[in-house]
Design brief:
Layout (H helix, E strand, L loop, with lengths): L1 H11 L1 E4 L5 E4 L8 H8 L4 H7 L4 H7 L7 E3 L2 H4 L6 H12 L5 E5 L5 H10 L5 E5 L21 E5 L7 H7 L8 E5 L18 H7 L5 E5 L6 H10 L5 E3 L11 H7 L5 E3 L7 H5 L10 E3 L7 H8 L7 E3 L8 H10 L7 E3 L8 H11 L5 E5 L6 H7 L8 E5 L8 E2 H11 L5 E4 L6 E2 L4 H11 L5 E4 L3 H12 L6 E3 L14 H4 L3
Helix pairs in contact: 6-7, 9-10, 10-11, 13-14, 14-15, 17-18, 18-19
């Protein structure tokens, strides 16, 4: 933060020339900067940093209180670092600091009260995006007096509790949310323990769907009670539906998928990662009549017969994620290539597909690699850097790429040669992840030169993820010397996905 402020102060120094053409610096301090410039500097800071800056002086306090800096606010301490302990203080913030500029707010359970919601409805007329986090709730506040709720919401995210029933609260807001276009219901999948526990339907999806007829995007993530009947309920009322995501909803089997496509003619994105799809149900879908363009069936148990039947009938597939599928083999890929419509495919994820061979992938990529923008082939020991070096010349449009496996290999990966090939052939690359174990990476004393070439040629690169180790340290230091501080990251805190290429990606972000 200090370096950012010093750079801006330096750039604001006024330079003048005398009659002899010499350059003279006119002394100034950050106090001399116009308020507009200070406001622009503050806009690059987090809200936690802005709060710290507001204590410096009266002028900075005035800048920090400018409502334009508070259009998107998270009050969840684990996300933003902001911890509001007093409801009275929050009510003051809403009226004084947020006001009409507020567009997005995240509230933890302790701040979700009828008084706060009333104040948001009255003071923040332009609020369109809201996240309500009930995930840690053991008891709800009393909402019997709730009479007002923001009415212009287009996006609502509700993080559900495992045990608290939401219907009392939801009944109070049904009349205010019929303009919603995007809804996220986030379950507790990541918190569930191994032992079987009683499952509670903590929110009434059948009533919710009646109150939200204009939904375009529905994301039901990791909810242990969601099943096919809930998908059927949404499809019966949401004729505008474009994107449905039910990732990690293990009770979904696909029994209502045929009806879903018959009703939702605009549905083009279906994400069903880690569900329990049954091949028989999937094969009943009239795929040839669907508008589906983006499909994620990773981690399911679909058969080879089902995969072939589906892929050859989808008329306009652009995004396919089909990793962790035992049934996805060379036969599926070959039939898809010969009988399916592959000419519009731009993203392909086949992670952890142990039954695919490097020969089968080479045939596919040599023919269609030029059109791909996203390619993920991670977790497969049989796919080596030799295959990547062979196909890189045709991956000239690639934006996202994931390669390598964390398993120890018998051979080594010549990473300098690989990085040089990426630099030469992939000028549009924005995100890259190398998952190989650091002990399998081999590089020479001239590695710095290969990294330099890669960094200079891949100027659009936003994220480079590597496993912890010596090579990671070398690459990180190289990028930091070039003032590209946030590019290089480790697999312990970051991963790369083709999801960035989804048409509704920004609508699907919920945290």
């Amino acid at each position: 933060m200090d370096s950012w402020l010093s750079v801006n102060v330096a750039s604001a120094n006024v330079l003048s020339r005398d009659n002899r053409g010499s350059v003279r610096g006119v002394k100034t301090t950050i106090e001399k900067l116009p308020d507009k410039v200070l406001l622009n500097i503050f806009s690059y800071l987090s809200h936690k940093e802005i709060c710290s800056m507001s204590r410096v002086c009266r002028k900075w306090r005035t800048i920090a209180y400018n409502t334009s800096l508070w259009y998107s606010v998270s009050l969840r301490p684990e996300i933003s670092g902001l911890h509001v302990t007093s409801l009275d203080f929050l009510l003051s913030l809403i009226s004084v600091r947020f006001g009409s500029s507020l567009r997005y707010i995240e509230l933890p359970i302790e701040l979700i009260t009828h008084t706060v919601l009333h104040e948001l409805a009255n003071r923040c007329p332009n609020l369109t995006h809201m996240l309500l986090d009930f995930s840690t709730a053991m008891q709800l506040h009393d909402f019997s007096e709730l009479q007002a709720f923001p009415t212009k919401l287009k996006y609502l995210c509700v993080c559900l509790s495992e045990v608290i029933f939401m219907e009392g609260f939801m009944r109070k807001i049904y009349n205010f949310i019929n303009g919603l276009e995007i809804i996220h219901l986030i379950g507790t999948y990541e918190k569930v323990e191994e032992e079987e526990e009683e499952i509670y339907e903590v929110i009434n999806v059948h009533k919710l769907k009646s109150a939200t007829p204009n939904l375009r995007v529905i994301n039901l993530y990791g909810i242990n009670f969601i099943d096919d009947s809930h998908i059927d309920a949404f499809s019966s009322n949401c004729i505008q539906l474009e994107c449905l995501a039910v990732n990690y909803c293990s009770k979904v089997t696909g029994s209502t998928m045929k009806t879903l496509f018959q009703r939702s003619k605009r549905l083009r994105c279906l994400l069903m990662n880690q569900t329990n799809l049954i091949s028989e149900y999937v094969m009943q879908v009239e795929w040839e009549k669907s508008s589906i363009q983006e499909l994620d069936i990773s981690g399911t148990d679909l058969s080879t017969e089902c995969l072939i039947d589906m892929l050859v009938r989808i008329p306009n597939l652009k995004f396919l994620s089909a990793g962790q599928l035992n049934g996805f083999n060379d036969s599926v890929l070959s039939t898809f290539m010969e009988q399916g419509n592959v000419r519009n495919l731009i993203a392909l994820n086949l992670d952890y597909s142990d039954n695919l061979s490097d020969e089968g992938l080479y045939k596919f990529l040599s023919r269609y690699g030029h059109q791909l923008q996203g390619l993920s082939l991670a977790g497969m020991p049989q796919i080596t850097d030799q295959l990547w070096n062979t196909v890189l010349p045709v991956l000239n449009n690639i934006i996202i790429m994931v390669m390598g496996t964390q398993e120890r290999l018998s051979g080594n990966v010549l990473v300098d040669q690989l990085m040089d090939g990426i630099a030469t052939n992939c000028p549009k690359l924005e995100r890259l992840e190398l998952k190989w174990d650091p002990d399998n990476l081999r590089f020479s004393d001239k590695s710095q030169k290969a990294i330099d070439i890669f960094r200079v040629k891949c100027l659009k690169l936003k994220c480079l993820v590597l496993s912890d180790g010596r090579y990671y340290e070398i690459v990180k230091a190289n990028f930091e010397r070039a003032d590209r501080l946030t590019v290089v990251r480790t697999t312990t805190c970051c991963s790369v996905s083709n999801y960035y290429l989804l048409q509704n990606y920004k609508d699907l972000i919920f945290n």
